[in-house]
Design brief:
Radius of gyration: 18 Å
Number of helices: 12
Order of helices and strands: EHEEHHEHEHEHHEHHEEHEHEHE
Shape: globular
CATH topology of the largest domain: Rossmann fold
């Protein structure tokens, strides 16, 4: 593992095959579902997570990894030959994961240099930064160059999501100022977005079909994109949305992946997230 190694958390929602291909290490957040043991739920795939959620009324909860978990991942990379480490995390404004990574890095010998990057984002938009870091590391860029390039891309990220209900986000307490925006209209089909690192209300749609059309229109309104992806929470109408998105962005390649437990615990089943990186 010579050169720069990339570490992230599982909020990035990158498919396992893509992570393996990129050589990225993942430090997972804990996910708890009712009385199920964390040691069991930590190993759930995204698909298994949604199967369990749909079979229970329990609210899933998440917690950040410990600084020790990041320290161990950083040391493993150094012992494997990494000359430096770039760690990309979920937004520091909705999780303590970034702070844990910083603390883990501070507890390392000076011979193990680490740059921790706050994505200010979630799911596959965070994943875009991870892929960019891995791409630059793979071509031989140095630590400062990789970290600087990734930080420069943070402001290019845009995440807009169509929720099937606002209730899960409200119950989880990760909704920013959206309650004032949506009020008590929990029967609507809300559109939310990541704005300056937090979840904010973006639009109110009356039907699911309108919410999916709205997302496609948002995509169509963007200029050139460096990357485009869809993260979904076992959405049964995923195919309908992908057809709309292909019509809106016919020349863009679209990465499609399950929305994982970390973000899905707060957005609920049926969520479809549109993740874009502006060129």
């Amino acid at each position: 593992m010579p050169g720069i190694h990339v570490v992230t958390d599982n909020a990035a929602d990158l498919p396992p095959a893509l992570l393996a291909e990129s050589g990225v290490t993942v430090v997972p957040l804990d996910v708890r579902i009712g009385d199920l043991p964390a040691d069991e739920t930590r190993g759930y795939s995204a698909e298994r997570f949604w199967e369990v959620i749909e079979a229970t009324s329990a609210l899933a909860e998440t917690s950040a990894p410990s600084p020790g978990a990041f320290r161990a991942a950083f040391l493993d990379a150094a012992q494997a030959g990494a000359e430096g480490i770039v760690c990309v995390t979920i937004s520091s404004r909705i999780s303590a994961t970034y702070q844990a990574a910083v603390a883990g890095a501070a507890d390392l010998p000076s011979s193990v240099p680490v740059e921790v990057v706050d994505s200010r984002s979630v799911t596959l938009a965070e994943g875009f930064l991870v892929l960019e870091a891995a791409r630059r590391a793979g071509r031989g860029d140095g630590l400062e160059s990789v970290a600087s390039a990734v930080r420069d891309r943070v402001g290019k990220l845009k995440v807009v999501g169509a929720l099937d209900t606002l209730d899960t986000l409200r119950r989880g307490g990760r909704i920013g100022s959206a309650p004032a925006f949506f009020g008590s209209l929990l029967s609507i089909k809300p559109i939310v977005e990541m704005r300056d690192g937090v979840v904010e209300g973006e639009s109110r749609q009356r039907t699911r079909a309108r919410s999916l059309r709205y997302l496609a229109d948002v995509a169509a309104a963007q200029g050139p994109l460096a990357r485009l992806a869809v993260a979904h929470a076992a959405a049964r109408d995923l195919g309908d949305f992908l057809a709309l998105l292909h019509d809106a962005r016919p020349d863009d390649e679209i990465l499609v992946a399950h929305l994982g437990p970390v973000i899905g615990a707060h957005t609920g089943p049926g969520t479809i997230g549109l993740c874009m990186e502006l060129a």
